[in-house]
Amino acid sequence: MDSYEEILLGMGSFGSAYDKENFQMVMDICRWNRHLKSFDVECEVFAKIPKDITNLQLLEELTVQFNALKGPIPLFIFNMSSLASMGFKGNSLNADTIPNEIGDLHNLEVLSLSMNKLNGLIPSTIFNSSTIRRMSFTDNMLFGRPPSNIGLGGSKARGVLFVNQ
């Protein structure tokens, strides 16, 4: 194969016979930096996001749903400037706040952080984005209100879900 544009990994492909902390296939995939645009990992494939994923310079979609991710969202994710869609739904991500660096993703259109253990306020930087269209923060422990000017100032936000515990 000369071109890889999309990778979908799931429990059905691997069973449980691999080390979630040191997932070698992901490292190999991260060498496809000139080709891969969509990376979708679901159903307990790994417990942490390898830093090598930042080698995927053309990556537009990063979806790591229903895995065993814990701790804060890794800051190196916010250096992936080509991301248009980012989803970490259904993990155990926890932090006192969502990092302000999330506003540095200037191409981000879709953000899903639902069903985690995130605390604190949603950073205002995300609401200043002119590209964001959909955001979902449901089933976390976030508090506060969205800014009253949401959807103004160039934002394309159409769908924002804030229902939290």
UniProtKB/TrEMBL annotation:
Cellular component, GO annotation: membrane
Keywords, alphabetical: Glycoprotein, Leucine-rich repeat, Membrane, Repeat, Signal
Subcellular localization: Cell envelope; Membrane
Cited Gene3D superfamilies: Ribonuclease Inhibitor (3.80.10.10)
Residues in coiled coil: none
InterPro entries assigned to the protein according to its UniProt record, in alphabetical order: Leu-rich_rpt, LRR_dom_sf, PGIP
Name recorded for this polypeptide: Uncharacterized protein
Species whose genome carries this gene: Ziziphus jujuba var. spinosa
Lineage: Eukaryota, Viridiplantae, Streptophyta, Embryophyta, Tracheophyta
